[in-house]
Predict the structure.
Amino acid sequence: MTLNNIIQSVIFLAALLLLVKPLGIYMARIYEGKPVGLNVWLSPVEKLIYRFSAVNSQISMTWKTYAFAVMLFNIIGLIVVYALQRLQAHLVLNPMSIPAVPPDLAFNTAVSFATNTNWQSYGGETTLSYLTQMLGLTVQNFVSAATGMAILVALIRGFVQKQIDTIGNFWVDLVRSTLYILMPLAIILSLVLVSQGVVQTFKPSVKVSLLQPTKDAEGKIVSEQILAVGPAASQIAIKQLGTNGGGFFNVNSAHPFENPTPLSNFMEVLAILLISAALCYTFGLMVSDTRQGWAILAAMLIIFIPCLYCCIYFEQKSNPLLAHLGVDQNVTAFQSGGNMEGKEVRFGIVNSAIWATATTAASNGSVNSMHDSFMPLSGMIPMWLMQLGEVIFGGVGSGFYGMIAFVIIAVFISGLMIGRTPEYLGKKIESYEMKMASLVILIPPILVLAGTAVSVVLPQAKAAIFNPGPHGFSEVLYAFSSTGNNNGSAFAGLSTNNLFYNIALGLAMFFARYWLAIPMLAIAGSLSKKKIVPSSHGTLPTHTPLFILFLVMIILIVGALTFFPALALGPIVEHLMMTGGLR
Amino acid sequence: MSKSHKSKSLFDPSIIGPAIIDSLRKLDPRHQIKNPVMFVVLIGSILTTGLWLQAILSHHGEAPAWFILAISLWLWFTLIFANFSEAMAEGRGKAQAASLRRARKDTPAKKLSKPKYGSPYQTVSATTLRKGDIVLVEAGDFIPMDGEVIDGVASVDESAITGESAPVIRESGGDRSAVTGGTRVLSDWLVVRVSSNPGETFLDHMIAMVEGAKRQKTPNEIALNILLAVFTLIFLLVTVTLLPFSIYSVNSEGFGQPVTITVLVALLVCLIPTTIGGLLPAIGIAGMDRMIQANVIATSGRAVEAAGDVDVLLLDKTGTITLGNRQATAFIPAYGISVEALADAAQIASLSDETPEGRSIVVLAKEKYGIRERNIHELQAKFIPFTAQTRMSGVDLGDGKQIRKGAVDAIENYIKNLGGSFPDDLKSAIDSISRSGGTPLVVAEHKNVLGVVHLKDIVKGGIKERFAQLRSMGIKTVMITGDNPLTAAAIAAEAGMDNFLAQATPETKLKLIREMQAGGRLVAMTGDGTNDAPALAQADVAVAMNTGTQAAKEAGNMVDLDSNPTKLIEIVEIGKQLLMTRGSLTTFSIANDISKYFAIIPAAFVGTYPALKALNIMRLATPDSAILSAVIFNAIIIIFLIPLALRGVAYKPMPANRLLRDNLLIYGVGGIIAPFIGIKLIDMILVVLHLV
């Protein structure tokens, strides 16, 4: 690990932590309906939206109605994105005359963006029209993120309210999340990105002459290149903020028009974790005990920081295979050293590793380097962070409510250990909450392991694996870890744009999102009906280092026990073979 | 108190024998299906046994026949060990039930035709009696059924139920009117109205409870079962998917064999929480057992569990916090009267007063002022007993002296009627007695007030420390008393209680409980009288005294056979212990899995990927020995933990955070480390014995 690695990562972490409190306070005030500038100035807009959509913002919904509204809204969104892709050839804003997207891919993409996953089996610049990108994907980037935040707010109400049957109004939570939180932040970030050179235009692709003509595979001289452009900056800002991750261009944030400079890189990677981290403080404020929010943020950091440095360490260490070929992997003033395969020179090791860790800790999934080319163990880190259930920051809203499921399990076991019916924030955790939290913990591993198992034996699925051996296995495992936890990043090395993977991964994304969201709303409804038990010496405090460590242990043990055998047959054995084989 | 007939040593041979037979009988799938974790083990055992038969018969087993057999046998042992723990717990209960059943002989009953002593009766079998029947029980007879005394007074031997050998008095009316079937009248007679039908008596309840027959799963047990089922499902998925993963790896590397079903079953059984899953029934039954050993009958496991959650204890002052009787501690004479004169008068007035307060006045006068007891007949004294109307007592002496003692206002009225006046200088003495929690007892001779006797409530020794412990556990204590607020505050402070309810009536008690429950607290209380019944019914944990009325017993969800109000504290501890044992063993069980992975995963795949040898950090001899050692450890740990499951995790009152820390260190960290050592040891033994 170099000094540069440490300085850059510490600056990143410090900037993130500094923003947690101000943004956290702002979001708490928005959700509690307290005046905080924007919601005063824009309140006519908010009211207008309700009037146009015939929403009675005063009505509070039961958890079932709330869940119904979530599902209705998301399914309609899914259908719209599907229809846009199928019909884009006949619609406006298609200067390149891109044809309709095939049905299986359209299904996969529609599910992917509705579920805040943004798994991309397509290349954006060659598959989608500008209209589809903007009206379909960018809109979903906002509302899928806002859906996650709305569900979290409903859950928080469950903790705060006493003996009330309802958990708030989904439409209001959705509109407020979008209008007051996501929109303003996205506008600020897009402007910064445009200033750094990210493109934002409706013009078609540009044809340019190469300064230095080159030869293609067949030996013909190539002197021209087509540069794809489009309305990218607006989509990229929300793709990072809303933990979406779907790139405008195929190579995502490695593309110089998506992420041109070290500053744009810093801003984008900061945006990946920003809202999810700040929601911890929002939670603390809303439950009137900020220590609880800090405790959860601490638990996230205790897992995140070692993963980050582990990833940096193994990437900075030279790749034995490259060393064998005589590649210079030493750190000098002119190169960052380490395993630079699949990385952008302008980002180097540390910014690639920070991004890889952040994008998989949060369920973002945008990439600025190829995870497939990471060293086995540093490639395992992003995979494992997803397999932990996307609760280390995770998706905006969804990461935190997933974390609450783990908190419920931790509180339950520790409650038994001190001889009391478990309680969290004064709410008793009983068999109903355990049932629902168990579903939340159980569904993603089922999707990941079952999906991988089917794919490594089914001939047409196996045919899509490029690399043999453990690495090929890792590629499949990564694909299902990513979709089964709504991350959306790809290991690559697996050709997924075919009927089997489009459908299988599409279903994984669908169930991973909604089979977790609905039980969490059920928990919100059940908690909301309960009394609040006043705390005493006999109550287990849930903000102490001891409880934080226990929570971390529960997350790690569940994650490790579930995926250890699979990881042993993938990255772990690959690492052992690589280091052992060349000794 | 003798509890000897109730407690058995942990490994009593008379229990172990039948328990071994029982643990084989419990292999019945219909029994196993109730416990999903162990049911999975049963399926695994059957599967591996089938694979072994196939290996023997076809000579083409998926693995060497001896290996499959060894795994299969140890899986069966895992099941049997788990069954054994349950059978042990039940056996202990059954032993108690048997001793209780001896008390429930089919006794003849004298059924009266009319609810009146002396009316004709016919002798019938006790089993034919129904609720509402009236029976006569005379000296030497067994009381045939639970009931309420409607006439008569008798001494009753209740040792069969309580283990207490001293006979108790049972009489009609008041709070000592309930009798229990199976107990024996020693002297006199009772007319009893039967209050329960056969099969519904306390004894039946108790037998059902200890036998575990009626045991229903408690809410926390249900929640824990869900968690265990989830872990089982996850590990089922992990092992099932390992087969395709392994096939892929073998195809891709081109050598080695796909992992065998036997190894996968072994891995599955090692990973699923068999330790807690197997011991869970035993823990629940043993919890009940501990309640019974404390001489408390709970009507449900739910009540036992709720006891661990209690936030507030309502305790009656008398008998629980104080010794029950006020005692005279000082004589304070009025102006112009000597202390001796006051003591003398107070003693004479108390000579015939058999109440503890009266006795204490006589004793104090004798000890402090050397005034000896005089014969009441020599004084030709006429005793004036205490009545609710006059609220005083005293004597009229032969020489015409009239001495009275009583409450301040009663005496004040009395002397005013006689034309006297209450001396002002005593008022301040009376006030200071009240403030200090004492009771002033005014002594007057005719219309002259002689002075005041300071009666003091004596707080029980050690009770203050007990309440401090409770406070550190987060449990508040509230004293319930009929005293005035001044007195109540003083005693509550002296006993170190958090709060008090003075001048308590059944209504104010009920109101207090409801208020606390509305604030989210769980309330426990004890009670015996009929007027306690509404509050008992409202409280979350309500312990009725066995000496109490039928109404009180029916309203409560536990009955304390010793009728000891302090028992509530023990009940809370037993409830907590029950939950803690479950939680600690769950943590232990899950923590164990880490080492099992390090034993089994390299062993299972080293054929395909030799590099995985690096994960064999325990350096186990061979792949076979590694897998076998993990399975053996998984089975015998159940046997090792049976004593813990039956006795329960040790409980010391301390704040939640420290309790969690201690238990995590023992069962969490210990649970990670212990199997590494255990598996390595077993592996070494297998190698030494040349078994692998």
User: Anything to note?
Assistant: The CA atoms of residues 190 and 252 of chain A lie 16 Å apart. The radius of gyration of chain A is 23 Å. Chain A has 20 helices and four strands. The first helix of chain A runs from residue 3 to 31.
